């Protein structure tokens, strides 16, 4: 019982911080998500620490460099999305993964390419996907959090409804080899829960934000979020199964680590950004 209450209290605090950081203004959003990027990168380096072929000093240096790279990447995307620097500035992002090839020339590692792949993965798997939040936040041409917060809520509702439906009705395994507890019933329950929230937000958000977004648009985003979040969860499960770990961290009591909590958003943020860019632009 104590574990359940710990999970609930942590979840409530987590929701307050996330919603507050997104809703207050663009700078609170910038601080919140920049911090999130840093925490996720730190956690990622914690789980790959023993995989890197390098001295302890270089492993620490790797983490520091990747943290710096990731914050700069997020900052560049934020400035482009907010219209403060030109779109062509995004071409700078290509240089960060390539820089790891140069760095490895000086480490004297026996497996330089191995290290390059592991370090670059932090950029491709975390920094760039989380930076998609900036494009969502400025989708309207100015800072407006309605799309971003909606997608966050769809991801959270998908997790909750998938868990409940899977627990009480789950019979048919979704992807047993990677995640034995996930079921098709849980998956469809998560989709249904996300669409339900889409209906609620289509009524409330226009009153709160002043932006009129149709239920159809929110429902499509809800389905995209549910599907991509499920793949994000499965991807994280695959990584943890390969590394033989239960959670990526313990910083969130009852919820594991930041990667455990945001694995769905890592996939759903860029997926929804692509939809809004090419089909709702």
Notes on the protein architecture:
The protein has 281 residues and is mainly alpha-helical. The protein has helices at residues 2-24, 26-48, 56-81, 95-104, 112-137, 146-169, 184-209, 215-243, 258-279, and strands at residues 173-175, 179-183. It has a two-stranded antiparallel ribbon with strand order 1-2. The longest helix has 29 residues, at 215-243. The termini are far apart. The mean pLDDT is 91.
Total strands: the figure is: 2
- How many angstroms separate the termini? 48 Å
Catalogue the unreliable spans. none
Main beta-sheet annotation? 2 strands, antiparallel
What would you report as the Rg, rounded to the nearest angstrom?
A: 19 Å
Helix/strand order, N-terminal first: HHHHHHEEHHH
Judged by helices, strands and strand pairing, the structural class is mainly alpha
Fraction in beta strands: under 5%
